[in-house]
Amino acid sequence: MLKKGAELELIVEKFADRGKSLTRVDGYVLFVEGGVPGDRARVRVVKRKKNYAEGRIVELLEPSPLRTEPRCRYFGTCGGCKWQHVRYEAQLEAKRQSVYEALVHHGGFEDVEVRPTLPSPRLYGYRNKMEFSFSADRWLTPDEIASGRPLDRHFAVGLHVPGNFYKVIDLEECHLPEPITVRLLNALRAFFKAKAGSRGTSGGTKATCAIW
């Protein structure tokens, strides 16, 4: 039985849902956040349940050939994307496999044929609506902390850290919507930051804005 805090070297087996992959350790399912099938990694167990455990990669020893370089500098900290580090062809197959397993394991169907996932003509810039949050308590990314640059920690407009509604990253770019959306976002930042500066700030997330 895996214990919380234990570290082990393993090879990730297959994709799961919500940005995770999985492997099995002595028959026990271990979900690995951000893992890609074929990764050889050292993983720390961060949560243990009766039937499964969850882990995070401590060190990537040998990356999977299915990996690719994320386009966005905020990937891994921002909760907007889950699979940007995975080659698109592998993402399509993962979606097909997810549908197949849902029909077989949850729906009770047998001999199901799930056809290949149809690819999108655009890998980026495909969303026509985005919702961004404002905060007077900016969440800094690891790269921002490491840079040592003086940063305004009392204003942010962007997206949330995964799993936490109150942690808002100040985004200057996002590749999900069309480029005009990001230009509007940066214009809104400049406008509202000037207003916030003239009136003072207080902690907490204050509002959201939607851009079509």
Summarize the structure in words.
This protein is an alpha+beta fold and 212 residues long. Among the domains are: 7-62, OB fold (Dihydrolipoamide Acetyltransferase, E2P); 130-211, no CATH class. The chain contains three helices and ten strands. It has helices spanning 88-106, 142-147, 179-199, and strands at residues 7-11, 14-15, 20-25, 28-33, 40-48, 52-62, 130-135, 156-161, 164-170, 205-211. The strands form two sheets. Strands 1-5-6-4-3-2 form a six-stranded mixed beta sheet, with no helix packed on it. Strands 9-8-7-10 form a four-stranded antiparallel beta sheet. Strand 2 (14-15) and strand 3 (20-25) form a beta hairpin. The longest helix has 21 residues, at 179-199.
List keywords for this structure.
22% helix; single chain; six-stranded mixed sheet; OB fold (Dihydrolipoamide Acetyltransferase, E2P); 3 helices; 10 strands; four-stranded antiparallel sheet; 212 residues; alpha+beta
Short synopsis of the structure:
The chain has helices at residues 88-106, 142-147, 179-199; strands spanning 7-11, 14-15, 20-25, 28-33, 40-48, 52-62, 130-135, 156-161, 164-170, 205-211. It has 212 residues and is an alpha+beta fold. Among the domains are: 7-62, Beta Barrel (OB fold (Dihydrolipoamide Acetyltransferase, E2P)); 130-211, no CATH class.
Q: In order across it, which strands form the biggest sheet?
A: 1-5-6-4-3-2
SS content category? alpha+beta
Beta content:
25-35%
Strand count, sense and barrel status of the largest sheet are: 6 strands, mixed
CA(first)-CA(last) distance: 49 Å
Count of helical regions: 3
Shape: globular
Order of helices and strands: EEEEEEHEHEEHE
Report the radius of gyration as a whole number of Å: 20 Å
Number of strands: 10
Q: Low-confidence stretches at least 5 residues in length (pLDDT < 50)? A: none
Helix content: 10-25%
Q: Average pLDDT, to the nearest integer?
A: 90
